[in-house]
Specification:
By secondary structure, this protein is mainly alpha-helical. It contains 47 helices and 15 strands. The longest helix has 28 residues, at about 155-180.
């Protein structure tokens, strides 16, 4: 745009610019004259028409002179910016009228019309929904408020009505694209708000119904139709709707489009007519929802084109020296590729340990990966380990790799599996499940999309997988084993000692793992001859009295192990101490008592010898057979004191780094950093910020669990560090996928501490377990555990146990508060606040005061409650942004109960915005519910509905109790709007959640609301 470019805006207050400078258009009637000329698009407008458009039936005494005066003033305004000559050329007199001669001017309404036409063209061509939506979003960004805001007169009113109708019609099409794409969590909020503001529009009703159905709110979707059907136009007969069938879901291009309307017919293009005689209107959609038509949830076409998809690439590196197995490779490739598109292809590969199942599976997966462009997922299910991997954590890992936020991963295994299948719907993804223990472990991990394929390895045949292609993998042929040995050891060395290579691979039982380890040993030692290697194998075979494949492999392990130097042998043994799938380099360095550089050198040397493998950069693990052998050597050769020292170093480092992560993630009070003052010698790994803290704690979760198990199993190791480590896992790694795991670890610590008579660690562990149970809505169990923690701390008047008691008292108060026992909850929270004040923990004191204040207010102690809430907010304001927002939210809750709703609303809105910016989802939802309740209590039903709908999806991912509270709020709102069916649907859903959670008081109050509704 050049410096002299002229721009006009009608989509908001009428404004004009010349270059970068805004033109002062003067009084409203002067602007109204300009608006008439602008909408004429260069055509001459007679003076009488101008006057009629500006003043209608109440013109001034001399309308002609009034028009002339306004035109003259407009010329003066443009002269001040563009010069006299340009101003004279711009507003010209033509006969008995005027024209705006600015063909090169940019007018936002012209751009708006052009973009709507582009969207309509794309729709007619059947373009993708995201492309249509992007054009519409660009069009909507042109708007700056009500068109011609502040201008009166028939012309302005007519143009305004036409443009607003266009806006609403375009918004309907955008929402239809949104619901087709299914990628907006706030869609129900916007659709519900517009449907309430504009009742009787078929397209809005249909969008809201489908959005609710996609959100799992089927009853509400059906209630929307029942509530709206009387005001909707008559649709096509039900026979037509039935004929559409369950597969007649509307594609992105079949929407009715956008009506441009006409200035003289502002009602044209009304959404009221759009639903008539359409087989995809609300009535047909109602039938499809009743049938649970799967196409209503199928978003595969839009997802396949979505730029947001990040294809996972989790396959381990293949082996450059992969040898043999040609027929098995070709058969697996044919099965994986040949059946894709008709059904999910499942190929199960079984065979004894060490036979090369994983190597073959990875080789085949890499061979076909281009046929699965949406990514490849890989999981070691640890079927041969002491504790196989549960499918729940495996699913959580897959979902995170597919871009699902940790807060959105459901706790329930069935729901998690359903979300996984939905995420893969319409995708072409290869899933490799390595080392499975049985069908029950595998079934939740199977996708449902016909474009996907699954390759499974297991030591046993998975006969319980219906329809799976089964393949048994045998040992290598003698020629294949000899070829593998030769490729690793080198052909020259093999040729130099004829006949011995054949003896060696036969002694290895033709098992690839054994052949690889022995050949790697030879390649690493130029002085070692094949004759000496063969003799060593003969000796090991005699020692172990080989009679099966496992012992055959163990003989090769022993041969390679006994040739290790002392440092390598020690590293090999100690790496088997933690029962973890793999160990990161920093943790391994702590375990070995070496620097990271030294540890890296040792571990990489073991990788080169195939005694360790490295699944990811700077992470190291064992093949399960090698781990078993390493554990045998550890027990036989490493003194108990050395094993204890190694475990001590590991748990020390893990706790020190976890404290650093906690500080980075939460900015905790110094007195809260170590609840038991457990001493640590290591400074730990530095942690820069919250994101790094969460990533570290998530990636090391398996090692942390192993460190806790080692501590509990060794009486020489103190339990205070294990208890604190579990506490840090729960506070930093606040993910529902981890809560039950942490609860189980805490139970282990508590039981062991009770056996040892160690009350401090037992109290902290029971507190941690109670908190984890609280987060998964097991309130009665939570109360029992936290109550036991409080009891263990009684009688202790000083020391770190006071902090544990304060935390447990506060948690007990929160537990009782959510169950409606406010007086008891206030007593516990008040006691906690006093203890926190004693130890100087201001942030924690502020949090306890906020809990106390709410419970006290619910108990009628309003003055005391308000004073406590205000003090709590002041204390928390200086403890970081999350604490400050939490203090504001606590204060807002109390102000509402104290009869100061407007002050409460201001604090609640600010807190909600702060939580949204900080991505603290659960508190964002809680603050949104508070905003909605305040609006509802003031009778501002539309604002209440908008606030509640906006955060309901967040609550559904974080807290069942909060989700029920929001549904109850929405039920209240719909009742206030005289929509009893929608109110009943919301309240029924809320009641079901309350009953499931055992929240009796909330359930009773919800039943009372339901009984008060008029019967349908």
């Amino acid at each position: 745009m050049g410096e002299s470019a002229l721009r006009f805006s009608l989509l908001g207050p009428l404004r004009a610019w010349y270059g970068d400078e805004e033109v002062d258009l003067g009084r409203p009637q002067q602007r109204a004259v300009l608006a008439v000329l602008l909408t004429a698009a260069g055509r001459t407008v007679a003076t009488a028409v101008l006057a009629e458009g500006v003043w209608g039936g109440a013109p001034p005494s001399e309308p002609r002179k009034a028009v002339q005066l306004h035109v003259s003033r407009l010329r003066a305004a443009f002269k001040a910016r563009a010069g006299a000559e340009r101003a004279a050329q711009l507003l010209v007199r033509v006969g008995d009228g005027y024209a705006l001669a600015a063909p090169d001017a940019e007018v936002d309404v012209v751009v708006w019309d052009r973009l709507l036409a582009e969207a309509e063209r794309l729709r007619a061509q059947g373009a993708a929904a995201d492309g249509i939506r992007e054009v519409l979003l660009r069009a909507h960004r042109l708007w700056d408020g009500e068109p011609l805001a502040g201008l009166a007169g028939p012309h302005a009113e007519s143009v305004r009505a036409r443009l607003l109708e266009q806006w609403l019609s375009a918004k309907e099409l955008q929402l239809e694209m949104d619901v087709e794409l299914g990628d907006r969590t706030d869609l129900t909020a916007e659709a519900a708000s517009l449907a309430l503001e504009h009742p009787g529009r078929s397209r809005l009703t249909a969008v809201l119904m489908r959005a609710l159905y996609q959100a799992g709110r089927k009853a509400e979707a059906l209630a929307v139709y029942e509530e709206a059907r009387r005001s909707l136009p008559r649709e096509a007969p039900e026979a037509d709707a039935e004929a559409a069938g369950p597969g007649s879901g509307r594609g992105p291009g079949s929407s009715p489009g956008i009506s441009s309307g006409r200035a003289d017919a502002p009602g044209s293009g009304s959404g009221r007519a759009d639903g008539a005689n359409r087989s995809d209107g609300p009535a047909a959609l109602h039938l499809r929802i009743l049938r649970e038509d799967p196409s209503l949830l199928s978003l595969s076409a839009a997802r396949a084109e979505s730029p947001a998809w990040q294809a996972p690439h989790q396959l381990p590196a293949g082996l450059a020296d992969f040898t043999g197995r040609e027929s098995a490779v070709e058969l697996l490739v044919d099965r994986l590729v040949g059946g894709v598109g008709r059904a999910v292809v499942v190929s199960a590969l079984d065979g004894m340990g060490g036979v090369g199942k994983t190597t073959l599976a990875v080789h085949v997966a890499r061979r076909v990966h281009e046929r699965f462009p949406d990514g490849q997922l890989f999981a070691d299910l640890r079927g041969a380990d002491r504790t196989p991997l549960d499918p729940g954590p495996a699913l959580a890992g897959f979902l995170r790799a597919l871009g699902v936020a940790a807060a959105e991963i459901p706790l329930d295994l069935g729901e998690r599996s359903a979300l996984y299948r939905s995420a893969l719907a319409g995708r072409k993804v290869l899933v490799v499940l390595d080392n499975a223990v049985g069908p029950d472990q595998v079934k939740p991990l199977l996708p449902g999309s016909a474009g996907c394929a699954v390759l499974i390895t297991s030591r046993t045949r998975l006969t319980g997988l219906a329809g799976a292609h089964q393949m048994r993998l045998e040992t290598l042929s003698e020629d294949e084993a000899l070829e593998l040995f030769t490729r690793i050891a080198g052909p020259a060395r093999v040729a130099a000692e004829p006949g011995l290579a054949e003896e060696i691979v036969a002694a290895c039982g033709l098992l690839p793992l054994a052949v690889r380890i022995v050949a790697s040993r030879l390649a690493a030692d130029p002085a070692l001859s094949l004759a000496a290697l063969a003799e060593g194998l003969r000796d090991q075979r005699r020692l172990t009295e080989l009679d099966d494949g496992k012992r055959t492999v163990e003989a090769t392990f022993a041969l390679s192990y006994h040739r290790l130097g002392p440092d390598l042998a020690r590293a090999f043994r100690l790496m088997a101490l933690p029962d973890a799938p793999d160990i990161s380099l920093p943790c391994a360095a702590a375990l070995l008592g070496r620097s990271e550089a030294d540890a890296d050198e040792l571990l990489e040397a073991l990788v080169d010898l195939n005694l360790l493998h490295s699944p990811q950069f700077e992470r190291y693990g064992f093949h399960d057979l090698v781990r078993d052998y390493a554990r045998d050597r550890l027990a036989a050769e490493e003194p108990a004191a050395e094993r204890t020292a190694a475990a001590d170093r590991l748990v020390d480092f893990c706790l020190a780094t976890a404290r650093n992560a906690d500080l980075a993630a939460r900015s905790v009070d110094p007195v809260e950093q170590s609840l038991l003052d457990a001493p640590v010698a290591s400074p730990g790994r530095p942690v820069a910020d919250s994101a790094e803290a969460v990533n570290w704690m998530r990636e090391q979760a398996g090692v942390h669990a192993a460190a806790i198990h080692l501590t509990c199993a060794d009486p020489a190791l103190p339990l205070d560090r294990a208890a604190e480590l579990a506490d840090k896992m729960g506070s930093v790694l606040f993910e529902r996928a981890q809560t039950t795991i942490i609860a189980d670890l805490a139970a282990l610590i508590a039981d062991q501490a009770a056996a040892r008579g160690d009350s401090g660690p037992e109290a902290l562990a029971r507190h941690v377990r109670g908190i984890m149970l609280w987060h998964v809505n097991r309130y009665e169990e939570s109360e029992r555990e936290i109550g036991r923690a409080v009891a263990l701390c009684e009688g202790v008047d000083g020391g770190p146990v006071v902090r544990v008691r304060a935390k447990a008292l506060l948690a007990l108060g929160s537990n009782l508060r959510i169950r409606g026992r406010y007086a008891e909850a206030a007593a516990y929270a008040g006691s906690a606040a006093g203890l926190f004040r004693r130890v100087g923990a201001e942030r924690a004191e502020g949090s306890a005061l906020g809990e106390f204040a709410f419970c006290a207010a619910q108990s009628g102690r309003l003055d005391e409650a308000r004073a406590a809430a205000e003090r709590g907010a002041r204390l928390m304001d200086g403890s970081g942004p999350v604490s400050a927002a939490t203090g504001r939210y606590y204060l807002a809750r109390v102000l509402r109960l104290c009869g100061d709703p407007e002050a409460a609303l201001a604090h609640a809105v600010r807190a909600r915005e702060e939580f949204a910016g900080l991505r603290v989802t659960v508190f964002e939802a809680a603050a949104g519910d508070l905003v909605a309740r305040i609006h509802a209590e003031a009778g501002r039903w539309l604002l209440a509905a908008e606030a509640a709908e906006a955060v309901l999806p967040l609550a559904g991912r974080t807290s069942a109790a909060l989700e029920a509270a929001l549904l109850r709020t929405l039920g209240t709102v719909h009742a206030g709007l005289c929509r009893p069916r929608q109110a009943r649907a919301c309240l029924d859903d809320a009641l079901a959640v309350y009953e499931r959670l055992g929240l009796g008081d909330d359930a009773r109050e919800t039943r009372a609301q339901l009984e008060a509704l008029p019967q349908p």
